[in-house]
Amino acid sequence: MTTRTRLEHDFLGEREIPDDRYYGVQTLRALENFPITGVAISGVPELVRALAQVKKAAAQANGELGVIPAGVAQAICAACDEIVAGELHDQFPVDVIQGGAGTSTNMNANEVIANRALELMGKRKGEYQFVHPNNHVNCSQSTNDAYPTAFRIALHAKLGQLVAELRRLQQAFAAKGREFADVLKMGRTQLQDAVPMSLGQEFEAYATTLGEDVQRLEEARALVLEVNMGATAIGTGINAPPGYTELVTRRLREIVGTPLVSSENLIEATWDTGAYVQIAGVLKRVAVKTSKICNDLRLLSSGPRTGLGEINLPPLQPGSSIMPGKVNPVMPEVVNQICYYAIGADLTVTLAAENGQLELNVMEPVIGYGLFTSISYMVNGFRVLREKCVDGITANRERCRELVVNSIGIVTALNPIIGYEASAAVAREALVTGRSVAELVLEKQLVSKELLDEVLSTENLLRPRYINPSLPAAAPRRQKVA
């Protein structure tokens, strides 16, 4: 079988393009030059749709300003609408990491849109005298404003997915907080017994910290609503007609449905990548805190016989090829690894942002790769953590209570009443002898049984109230340990 081809050219020469492909010669060169990650820009559908939205807004503005023929503008818009609807995404094969500051991505979009617009006008692919990738689809634009604007629109959409998923995870922890509100357990600091709390309080704290990160993500997400359309090459607006910047931004805002605004200084906006640095930092913050929670889940569920064993994670798969019956905490483990990736991507974004020179930062492709992959991994990871782990966590209530009753840490609740020195002596003797704190306190007549029962009651341990040691009811029977 033979594949029909068409001949296309750029200033470097002519190349044959399979005629069933909508992309052209510059996309072909990019495919040959950048076999880097194996991830095509089609793997980030938000970016492909955003590119089409940018090109549609530009075509509308150029048509209204009389810069391109109305029929050409209409055909370009129609082709863009198809791409936004999910069609032709397989025609975006350029690798996400590339040299040229995103030129290959921009030209991939220009060529696909031009060739589809030609078809819609009854022409053949490659008949660029009617609709040209540069002269028409890229009219009044440069890669340096079209690509970062599309990047920001796509990033805003991706961050919205992460915000929604993190909020659902936060709500799942909050639900467990309510479910475990009456489960008495031992709190720990430095992996040592501290003071009692409820398992519900522990899970409520997880919900609270994730809720804070939802707010930080929303704040960071707002930073990418400022775009530099109309900047063209370096921010001076060369080759763009009067009124284009305001008009294309307004049309883009209408198309995307988000409150996009034009940057006050287009020269600064063309090279500035500070928003990406801040977003990467917030992603790192989310990753660090979520990974810490996953570490806790692994510790709290450790065992089943020789660990803490305070909670049970849903059993999902056999945990060993050699140890029968072993079940591992695979969901927290996989989310830990996702979080490590996002933490590392923050450094990549930082270095790439710092390494821009003069009027352009050519490293935006790797910035995009680091942010898009981090967000995608976190969205997927947080979803499975919620569905396959958090929602199904159960409490080992008796185990939790047993650890509190046998803990030396409960002596802290008696500290205001019998004093630090007496409390320390009881703790030391309990540790050496294996006897309980309550037993020793009563034996030494340090407090009455009634007061001890009150201090060590579940209600008081979960919601401690201060007992004034100067009141008669709180007075110890003996001030010193015998």
TrEMBL record:
Any one annotated GO CC term: cytosol
InterPro entries: ApsA, Aspartate_Ammonia-Lyase, Fumarase/histidase_N, Fumarase_C_C, Fumarate_lyase_CS, Fumarate_lyase_fam, Fumarate_lyase_N, L-Aspartase-like
Ranges for domain Fumarate lyase N-terminal: 13-344
Gene3D superfamilies xref list: Fumarase/aspartase (C-terminal domain), Fumarase/aspartase (Central domain), Fumarase/aspartase (N-terminal domain)
Lyase keyword on record: yes
Any single GO BP term: aspartate metabolic process
EC number: 4.3.1.1
Alphabetical keyword list: Lyase
Domain Fumarase C C-terminal span(s) in chain numbering: 410-462
A Pfam match: Lyase_1
Reactions it catalyzes: L-aspartate = fumarate + NH4(+)
Single GO MF descriptor: aspartate ammonia-lyase activity
Protein family (similarity comment): Belongs to the class-II fumarase/aspartase family. Aspartase subfamily.
Name under which the protein is recorded: Aspartate ammonia-lyase
